[in-house]
Sequence to fold (117 residues):
Amino acid sequence: MSSTSGFGQIIINEDNEVTRALEYYKTLANSTDHVNGWRIQLINTDNRRQMEAARSRFSSQYPYLKMTWEHVQPYYRVKVGAYKDKMELEAFLRELKTDFPRAIPVRDKIYKSELAL
Fold:
């Protein structure tokens, strides 16, 4: 690899093992279908009716946004959005807090196809 600037030429000799390791990690990163990212959790409750009410309220207010829910005994969790980093969700989280005061950012596995949307 070389670079030319106004003062001359810089030559960097990279060891073959380093080059192979970098190529391996690039291939690995491109082969996985998900990344670690963020979602907004609207509710975490052990009451299924409360969870269903939150789902219904969210889908009527934001019909164009994807929502998921999960049951991890004994809790029901409703999550929305798919964000690569936490800063991306902050504005929407503030908006949601008016109707969902217990909404919080949570780490989650995000499919790369969700981020492309």
In short: The mean pLDDT is 87.
